[in-house]
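Posting for a labmate who doesn't have an account.
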Amino acid sequence: MTFEALVTPASPVPDTRETGSDFAALSRRISEAGLLDRRPLYYTVRFTLVGLSLVGGVAAVVALGDSWAQLLVAAAMSVVFGQIALVAHDLAHKQVFSSRRASEGWGIFVADLLLGMSYGWWMNKHNRHHANPNHEEKDPDVSPDILVWSKRQASAAKGLPRFVGKHQSRLFFPLLMLEGPNLSYNSFRALNKPTMKRPVVEGTLLVAHFVLYLGGLFLLLPPGLAVAFIVVHQALFGLYLGSVFAPNHKGMTMVTSEDQLDFLRRQVLTSRNVKGGAFIDALMGGLNYQIEHHLFPSMPTPALRKAQLITEQFCAELGVSYHQTGLIASHREALRHMRAIGEPIRLEF
């Protein structure tokens, strides 16, 4: 489908650009509905529940001791770590606190100490993604480091991306199981980069995380069981986290510097919402409303559901394609896209 087909109004609509951009008109509707207001009670309850889940998981490890039932705890803790990552994400976007200092301070504590991921490194990467989602040259989330996301990337791929790209739709979920160690590895690598504002603080907290995490497990469990716990925990954590983020953009419109899109269309056309009600909202931490999140990154999670209705209606008025589907269907679309992108590489063998 061409960009013209995606963004041309299906019927005449008022030209909102007479008094501002299309996004400005949508932003006024969102603001008038009070959807950008802080929600302290919601985040107090949510953070308390996540914190209690973490404490409960640690207590379960201590109580069970030398038992293979620990692997069930490892699986449960993968979900807890995923929820911690979603908490760090909301803090980074200033959804919780209006103060930059409070957002950053709590973000560093949650991401570095509790999760083992550098807040500063991830923020730099994630901000570039938000500015240019699915942009082949500017979005780090679709850079062809291992997987390829467009036929242009597939044609230029060499080495590992070319080898993996041949079967990337089948390798995608197994590769997600490595995402936890990958995040920590890149976090340590980033500590000496000039973009890091607090390398000493973050480095100290990252080391402290792994001393507590690895030291605690090997202190409490036999070596073999400790290794098994780590493997199960990290694999399922990566799978969960990747499955939360993958449906949001994978398989949606890819753009290059040749494409001229305004802010609203750049965010809407490259994003996908996932339907599913309260369970999906909790599972994905509100990121299932990816379109609204990209348009209004600082919007508190509980406001996204109402914002979705307003945004979908607004896009319908403009004739801008607005895509949402179920969770399984979203993964199916992403995998179908990955298989199609890898086809030129497969045909060469």
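Reply:
Got it, the structure tokens are right above this. The chain has 17 helices and two strands.
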